[in-house]
Amino acid sequence: MHEEHSGPLAGVRVVELAGIGPGPFAAMLLADLGADVVRVDRPGGSSLGIAPEFDVTNRNKRSVLVDLKAEGGTARVLGLVDRADVLIEGYRPGVAERLGVGPADCHARNPKLVYGRMTGWGQDGPLAQRAGHDIAYIAPTGTLGMIGRPDEPPTVPVNLVGDYAGGSLYLVVGILAALHHARATGTGQVVDAAIVDGTAHLASMIHGMLAAGGWQDRRGANLLDGGCPFYGTYETADGQYMAVGALEQQFYDEFSDLLGLADTAPARSDLARWGELREAVAARFKERTRQEWTAVFEGSDACVAPVLSLREAPGHPHLAARGTFVEHGGITQPAPAPRFTRTPTAVRRPPARPGADTADVARDWDVPALTGDGPTDPPKKGS
What we know:
Elements: E1 13-17, H1 22-32, E2 36-41, E3 61-65, H2 73-83, E4 86-89, H3 95-98, H4 103-109, E5 114-119, H5 134-138, H6 160-185, E6 189-194, H7 195-202, H8 204-211, E7 231-235, E8 241-245, H9 249-259, H10 274-285, H11 290-297, E9 304-306, H12 317-322, E10 325-328, E11 331-334, H13 358-364
Parallel strand pairs: 1-2, 1-4, 2-3, 4-5, 5-6
Antiparallel strand pairs: 7-8, 8-9, 10-11
Helix pairs in contact: 1-6, 6-7
């Protein structure tokens, strides 16, 4: 029996050509929103180097096993394309075309298809054919250079800023916009989501501030990059940290009062005294533990919060009350986001095991060739 999908994208069919990083995460987000995502894994696979059952980015999906380089492999994938609304691929430019599943091949069979392409450098430009990873993509955009202390090398923001924020999320936005257009006009298109483009776009506000003279083009010298003593992190007595974001005057007043900074609080408005203010704030935080400071600021508008680890985060009272993290299949993981009042989302399925759902997908999508029970060139979508 075909499982019931919930979420605003229920009824949308997505083919994901297996890869790693931002493509799978984008497909997971679509799956979280209710889309029927079929991941086309290849024999031998490509993974994060962890067991498939722990790869949360493959949750809420189903998997079929197809070797695109083997005889009949391309036809089997095109059989899925015939039935799909969206395709996601993350190969280097030109690879999908060589495998016979490029945009022209797919649109010839399914003109309404939204063809999502996820790369670091984009489909064109001098570096389009070069290899890379998150850190190399965000470096030329100016984004990496903004992050970190002024007297140290730039801080690596894990792979969140490039792969997922500048990559996956922009791919999903593009797919949803193109899907809306396809349903209105009957015409699909290609979405070229490049991490360099998305990451540059994330810094739009900063570029505006830079043009207006309100942002210095160097690390640790600005309001939001750690240069400001009332927007940053401070060590506590037990070697933990508190995060401070008391930007507006009324929040700063509450912050300085609860911290006990009456003498140095006026330094807020004097850039020449920011060093003095930072030292005073740091000294005060060193006097108590993270737990003690959390209790001091609890219930206030001082904009102060404890810095928690990944394992600690699910236990935070607010996150626990909202169910920001859920446990499914023995794995504690972030719940689907955002939330919807009429079409609720959920973690419905554990991470897809490569090839485990071939028979179910062949039946549900009416592509018998996936299991070798029918011709490798099934009827086109709508026939």
